[in-house]
Specification:
The protein is α+β, with helices and mostly antiparallel strands. The chain has 11 helices and 11 strands.
């Protein structure tokens, strides 16, 4: 367990979304722990280990020792482990692996391209933007529409499905909504402001039923303005996920920030359980 002082210290050093304790607690329903310079979350029979040291000085040997210490303490049946590099001793034992990149947008001297601003100006003529801390049935319907048509990795799909509970439980979540002239929801972004240095772009999606061209671009600019108002140095844009999402982030100036490696290890014989099932609430 973490004290409130420890959580604030973590947020002051955070540089990846998984360091945002309240975000991870709300999504995973696990309890946070700290071992040496590493954060992890655990509950019942599982453990999520965040292999990005808070002081940023990554060493595969130190990371391997820390995750082993956490495993020895918790004795989980399932381990989900992320890190910029996977320690060699874990490579052969991973039942599932993924590789990606974290993306970020430096806000210290940011100036969007004039072509983007023209698109945003056109969208602003067709929409109004609402900033709130509430996730409504209308938001849930938009997410359901988005998930029905988009092919996303299972864990990303479950992240979207976790948004109602996360927003309700979080004191740092903000919902940006774009409504068309008929007051129908056209697009939404969810942003977390807990980390000291950055604002976290958690998820975003748009409607094809109530489509407004460049509504997502309008919300992206609103997100930038919100982050600057909150005195954040950069936006953490999360993972590339797929070509379409990556291109959208890069269009706005997002750049690769850190490598991301994911490993799932199971310490018992049930091969059906995974992080997806955890997020679904089935573990």
């Amino acid at each position: 367990m973490l004290s409130s002082d420890q959580e604030q210290e973590i947020l002051s050093k955070a540089y990846v979304p998984e360091h945002v304790v309240s975000l991870m607690k709300a999504i995973s329903k696990g309890e946070p722990f700290l071992t040496h310079d590493y954060l992890y979350f655990a509950k019942d029979n599982w453990l999520i280990f965040v292999g990005y040291p808070l002081e940023r000085d990554f060493s595969k040997a130190r990371c391997e020792a820390a995750v082993q210490e956490a495993v020895d303490a918790i004795r989980p049946e399932y381990l989900w482990f992320i890190a910029p590099e996977m320690p060699g001793a874990w490579l052969e034992s991973c039942e599932e692996r993924q590789s990606d990149w974290y993306y970020e947008l430096d806000l210290t001297a940011y100036h969007p391209r004039s072509s983007l601003m023209r698109q945003v100006e056109k969208a602003a003529l067709e929409t109004r933007v609402d900033i709130s801390t509430t996730f409504t049935k209308e938001h849930a319907a938009l997410v359901a529409e988005f998930l029905k048509r988009e092919k996303l990795p299972p864990m990303i799909r479950e992240l979207y499905r976790a948004m109602p509970g996360y927003v309700a439980a979080s004191s740092s979540a903000v919902v940006l909504s774009a409504y068309d002239k008929k007051d129908r929801l056209a697009a939404l972004f969810i942003v977390d402001l807990a980390a000291k240095a950055f604002a976290t772009y958690v998820v975003g999606c748009y409607s094809r039923k109530q489509y407004v061209a460049h509504a997502s671009d309008l919300l992206f600019l609103e997100m930038i303005g919100l982050a600057i108002k909150e005195r954040k140095a950069y936006l953490s844009l999360g993972l590339g996920v797929n070509d379409g999402i990556r291109r959208f982030k890069e269009k706005w100036g997002g750049t690769r920030f850190l490598a991301y490696e994911f490993c799932e290890r199971r310490f018992q014989k049930d091969k059906k359980s995974s992080l997806q099932r955890l997020l679904e609430g089935k573990l």
